[in-house]
Write a structure and sequence with these properties.
About 45% of the residues lie in helices and about 15% in strands. It contains eleven helices and seven strands. The chain is globular.
Length: about 280
């Protein structure tokens, strides 16, 4: 481990150790799993509560994975029902949708923390997250949710590096964003659309692809996969299997994004507009 990373890691442990007890917004991803592991190591199992929202925006496969990893770490893990589709500001999908999503989530997490006598709600925001278009960060600040990884100055690649040294199974897990991020801003988010996206992505993962995003434009799907896996779509048999599966789900037009998989691709139009302006 590089000295700079080791120094940040020591800083993280000091930050968490000073908190006393914490509630972690836990998804089972790279960052929140790492945060959960270090929190348990620093504070003890009894002083840490991992909380996961079961919602239409969170795929069943991810929920099951979060449960499995939580059990592996010996964590106190609470799963609660949460339905973003009940909030019009979220369903209408404005450019700052993530703000309303995070606001609703953090409000509920804060209430749970208060009921459990826990002083701090923390999440897995990292230094790598602050450069992108992330309106959800505003909700975090408004509700006093702390981000120890960000406070320690840790970047995503450093968290993966330390996670590998700790033998965490998530060290090389592909990044994940909620299913709402598959809808272009301004297109209404529906339960049926979310199910189409989830089933489509499950199909590709079942075919052995490592990571995938199916961007949803009603009856058109824009598929993002890692560039190394694009060649699979040149195989006529695989391509037919994809077409059949996607049309069965309700897609009429099936496209492959030639730029490949990239986090936050729905934000590119916003960021481009800010740059041009």
């Amino acid at each position: 481990m590089r000295k700079s990373t080791e120094s940040k890691f020591d800083g993280l442990k000091r930050i968490i150790g000073e908190m006393g007890n914490v509630l972690i917004a836990y998804s089972g991803g790279v960052d929140s799993t790492f945060l959960l592991k270090i929190s348990i190591d620093c504070l003890g199992r009894e002083k840490v509560l991992a909380v996961t929202a079961k919602s239409p925006f969170f795929p069943e496969r991810e929920l099951l994975e979060a449960k499995r990893i939580g059990e592996l770490l010996g964590a106190n893990h609470l799963i609660f029902e949460h339905n973003e589709l009940e909030v019009e500001e979220i369903v209408s999908n404005p450019k700052d949708r993530c703000y309303y999503c995070k606001r609703e989530l953090f409000r509920k997490l804060t209430r749970i923390a208060e009921e459990c006598g826990i002083r701090y709600v923390i999440d897995g925001t990292t230094l790598s997250d602050v450069g992108d278009f992330r309106p959800g960060l505003r909700a975090k600040e408004e509700l006093n949710v702390r981000s120890p990884l960000l406070e320690a100055g840790l970047k995503k690649e450093e968290i993966r590096e330390i996670s590998k040294s700790l033998n965490l199974p998530t060290y090389d897990k592909p990044s994940f964003a909620c299913l709402a991020s598959r809808f272009p801003y301004g297109r209404r988010i529906t339960e049926n659309g979310l199910k189409m996206v989830e089933k489509a992505e499950d199909f590709f993962l079942d075919q052995g692809l490592r990571a995938v995003r199916v961007r949803h434009y009603g009856n058109l799907a824009r598929i993002e996969v890692e560039k190394e896996e694009m060649d699979r779509f040149l195989d006529p048999k695989f391509r037919k299997k994809v077409i059949d599966a996607m049309k069965k789900l309700g897609y009429v037009y099936i496209t492959l994004d030639l730029e490949g998989l990239r986090s936050g691709s729905m934000n590119e139009e916003i960021l481009r507009g800010e740059k041009d302006g």
